[in-house]
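Help wanted!
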Amino acid sequence: MLIVNSPVKEIKEIQKDIFLQKIYSPVIAKQIKPGQFLNIRVSETVSPLLRRPFSICDVDGDYIFLMFNIFGEGTKILSHKHIDDTVDILGPLGNGFNLTNDFDTAIIVAGGLGSAPFPFLTRLLKDKFDIYSFVGGRSKNDVITYNLLNVQTATDDGSLGFNGNVVQLFEKNLPSFKSKKIKVFGCGPNAMLRALKEVCIAHNINCEVSTECAMACGFGICQGCPIEATEQSDKYLLVCKDGPVFNVKDVII
Amino acid sequence: MLIVNSPVKEIKEIQKDIFLQKIYSPVIAKQIKPGQFLNIRVSETVSPLLRRPFSICDVDGDYIFLMFNIFGEGTKILSHKHIDDTVDILGPLGNGFNLTNDFDTAIIVAGGLGSAPFPFLTRLLKDKFDIYSFVGGRSKNDVITYNLLNVQTATDDGSLGFNGNVVQLFEKNLPSFKSKKIKVFGCGPNAMLRALKEVCIAHNINCEVSTECAMACGFGICQGCPIEATEQSDKYLLVCKDGPVFNVKDVII
Amino acid sequence: MSNIDLSVTIASLKLRNPIMLASGTVGYGNEIAEFIDLNKIGAIVTKSLSLKPRKGNAPQRITETPAGMLNAIGLANVGVEVFLKEKIPFLKKYDVPLICNIAASSVEEYVECTRMLNEEETIKAFEINVSCPNVKDGGLQFGNNLTAVGKVTEKVRAVTNKPLIIKLSPNVSYIHEFAQVVKDSGGDAVSAINTLVGTAFNIFTRRPKIQNVFAGLSGPAIKPIALAKVLEIHQKVDIPIIGIGGIMNWKDVVEFIIVGASAVQIGTLNFIDPTAPIKILKDLENYCKQMKINSVSELTGSYII
Amino acid sequence: MSNIDLSVTIASLKLRNPIMLASGTVGYGNEIAEFIDLNKIGAIVTKSLSLKPRKGNAPQRITETPAGMLNAIGLANVGVEVFLKEKIPFLKKYDVPLICNIAASSVEEYVECTRMLNEEETIKAFEINVSCPNVKDGGLQFGNNLTAVGKVTEKVRAVTNKPLIIKLSPNVSYIHEFAQVVKDSGGDAVSAINTLVGTAFNIFTRRPKIQNVFAGLSGPAIKPIALAKVLEIHQKVDIPIIGIGGIMNWKDVVEFIIVGASAVQIGTLNFIDPTAPIKILKDLENYCKQMKINSVSELTGSYII
Ligand SMILES: Cc1cc2nc3c(=O)[nH]c(=O)nc-3n(C[C@H](O)[C@H](O)[C@H](O)COP(=O)(O)OP(=O)(O)OC[C@H]3O[C@@H](n4cnc5c(N)ncnc54)[C@H](O)[C@@H]3O)c2cc1C
Ligand SMILES: Cc1cc2nc3c(=O)[nH]c(=O)nc-3n(C[C@H](O)[C@H](O)[C@H](O)COP(=O)(O)OP(=O)(O)OC[C@H]3O[C@@H](n4cnc5c(N)ncnc54)[C@H](O)[C@@H]3O)c2cc1C
Ligand SMILES: Cc1cc2nc3c(=O)[nH]c(=O)nc-3n(C[C@H](O)[C@H](O)[C@H](O)COP(=O)(O)O)c2cc1C
Ligand SMILES: Cc1cc2nc3c(=O)[nH]c(=O)nc-3n(C[C@H](O)[C@H](O)[C@H](O)COP(=O)(O)O)c2cc1C
Ligand code: FES
Ligand code: FES
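Answered by r_m:
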């Protein structure tokens, strides 16, 4: 964990309303792993006051990438940064995806901005594993397939790909992975993660999801980010410290 | 009085720490008079919350100019604007200098950033009147002579021009205006304005000063900007509405 | 024309919409009328009036704080007589409900002010400021004292039949107790909240930034506190509430209404954007459309807890 | 090395400097130790401890507000026993005064917690949280009730000789009355302030943003209020004050000290910049140099009004 002021080097609108920000931050780039996140202070003023958590989207040499849409004030300010304006980064945070497990095929299941952590995961896994990506959204504009491999898409309104949600699409395709040792990596809205958990548990599939919740500190001192554990019930887990990546077996989403 | 969102077109550091900002704002440019001011919202966020008052420094065609230094958060944000970023302007505000009086020679007495309103005044008066400018500051770097005419300078530390304050310099030069019908226009810190008032009243010179104080609204609804009147004592005058320019005879500075 | 009903009712006071302009943040209406059409506003509340003119505090009266501002104007106002003679004529030209806010340093003065203003038909209601923290002889002891608030309400009630609104102090532990006293003493509604007591010092001179030392905190900084006070009253006392405190946009207005306000007042925002009240009205209407709400009054206290 | 004396004394508690880390904003020190050298800090205050472990409130527990944040953590903590067994060993490694903050729902529980912790020599003082607004069975009634605060102080005083600090609720009209009761009941110092009661609602779901509905407001938004409370106490009661509320930088620290604080606590800022406490120390020293102040304790209550 460190705090570094890093210059923005590029901001691209990779598709309508979705921004990719390239930041020069060699030390973070060196340390961070897929599934970890950064807590970013977008302004020196008190508005917004708190840092904003963002998944590490990708790493390329000394550069890191964030992916976001304009949700509120913080992301608006972030999207308006000029080249060489700096952002104040606290990270790397959280645990990241567990990549040591025994699997030969990685399956990504992402809803909406849930695609954010997966370009980096894909980059690291693609030479050693088979990767299949199921990507969904409410509508065509919400589906983000940027830098993913072997993509199949789903939209709630049928405007792109499969007409339905991405977990249904994934389940429909499950039979094709029968001969593989698969591991699922999920990220997206809670409702989607719940559905994904159900499917994976029903089919006894190893599945990790990156969860989201309101955060203040991002590193375990505020107790602001509880998530209910499946087992021990006398205490909550913390999304920022014990997660954000959890095995679906371990938490109640 | 109107509210307009106007784009910044140029920011120049005219001397160390002193910025001149050129803004495209045709309607304001058309209406505003020297000595009036603008109340500017520098950010869409709540930080800073209130508008910041600035004298109109100059007008050129459809462009207006502000002059400022980095004092706190508001002026810092203002100085960091990029070209075509907008500022939210409320104005013109206040009364401005009274130029209908009977005088043939205008004398400007300015301390520090008190020079701000005078480039515009000079521009409007220079073809019809003689103008002499006495400009002071604590030290060389604080003396702002930008676009002023017939300038004599004073510094407290003697690093430039007369060694002493600008009011002393002005008083020393008074004899040279004996044959003229002079009017003095002053702006600067309160201590300076008090001294100027004393000199002008002692010598029975017509003198208007642009005063400053904390403001919220800038147009008379908050009652935040009282200044004590010389005459009637059952109520305060408002700097924003009754001023910011006052005849030194009318107010207790 | 839209078919959303924005009108609201507070006791017998009918307003075309719930957006009022708060006391002390619009003077007597003259200046803000240059920016907005007062006829479109729900109601305008005057600067607090006292029996005699008050000069107010010496400068400095205001300073900015994080997402807020402190003020200690000291109730500078023209006094009831001058108000009636010189300020009412301007306001008569508009078709906007006028609410007179009254501040005083004794129960008798509250009653006397009300009596003098009561005849003027342009005045549609009274808002009694028991909570101004900046007047040393009045203010605090009234607003933070249940008995005093009860007594003021009762005595003023006795001299007017116009809707009587008591503007409550937030500087108390349980504001609903005050709302209950107002109700029990014959008041028709409460306004919540007035400013919170605050201060600020210059660290180089070690002097207070505000000449009066203690001052009133307003602006978005106080919004969460104001919302909690409104909700507390709504949960415990059956009385119409006018929500005030840190409103910056239509979303804040909706939030106040959801937690229990029948109408709201806009204060500090008028200094920053005097056109905001009108913009908010449009946005409020859009919200109602989007949420399929026919009448904004349905929203009042519609929280789901 | 500099020749500015930053050390301060609060009753018998000697601190190397006035910068403490506030309860609930640094856990038990483990995480923040990755960012700063705890040995340089004036003191560290633990998350409120209760007799038994507390799971705390269900999510959502926090939300941002203008220049502030609301929290209703619900005093999630490991409990006194686990604290002694598992958390103290880490803290023992540092030479930083440890202050145990205690929260309870009854006078007996306060006393019992204190008794259990009193033997542990690493603990240099107690801070009694009578003012947490988020615990329904405890909290509010204690902090806003003079008699209860007096009783807790007296009973806890009876079981410890260590410095006893009572952390006051700001949700009262006259906080100095509480400081006076603390003094009269044997307390050594007061901390002011804890969070203010606030709330926030989602306008589309109409549900509270915080699961507990009411929550505590902290951050720069509350600084002017906190300063006024500290000043009020300093003007009326002769007791050491620890100033808390919205500190974002060294200037805020100086402001608190000028209005009467002997030391300060940094809360929400730790979430935003955990290295800030150390930076503030340097800047505080520079300020003293610039102002020709030899000992920071000279500054306490040095306002000129
Ligand atoms: C581990 C993690 C990784 C993330 N990765 C990304 C990413 O890669 N790209 C991206 O666009 N977004 C990501 N997010 C979400 C992102 O943090 C929010 O979109 C961002 O905070 C919005 O800030 P804002 O100021 O624009 O919006 P605002 O309108 O100001 O809202 C943000 C506020 O809402 C609260 N909040 C944030 N998230 C939640 C939530 N899930 N539930 C309830 N309240 C919440 C916070 O307290 C915050 O103060 C991630 C969140 C987490 C926790
Ligand atoms: C009529 C008028 C004209 C002005 N013209 C100019 C100009 O042309 N150029 C220029 O650089 N500055 C000018 N100023 C001063 C300018 O408004 C301040 O420098 C500016 O507000 C600083 O804002 P900030 O956010 O940078 O500083 P901050 O540190 O945020 O301080 C500004 C805050 O201090 C308060 N404040 C501002 N002025 C005073 C004061 N005189 N006394 C006490 N408190 C005060 C305000 O409440 C404001 O919120 C003028 C002021 C007035 C009233
Ligand atoms: C400069 C100023 C002057 C005020 N004067 C009065 C007043 O005279 N009477 C009164 O009842 N409230 C007065 N108030 C309080 C406001 O009406 C309102 O209750 C408070 O500012 C909170 O709302 P806001 O956060 O929207 O400003 C004043 C507020 C400000 C900022
Ligand atoms: C997330 C959070 C948790 C807190 N938990 C506690 C607590 O357990 N006990 C306590 O006495 N105060 C607690 N506080 C209050 C702080 O110690 C402090 O009094 C308050 O936040 C004001 O200071 P600040 O504005 O610097 O944060 C908590 C504050 C926050 C923000
Ligand atoms: S965000 Fe602070 S503990 Fe997780
Ligand atoms: S600044 Fe508001 S009345 Fe002058």
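OP: Thanks! One thing I noticed: The interface with chain B takes residues 66-67 of chain D (CB under 8 Å).
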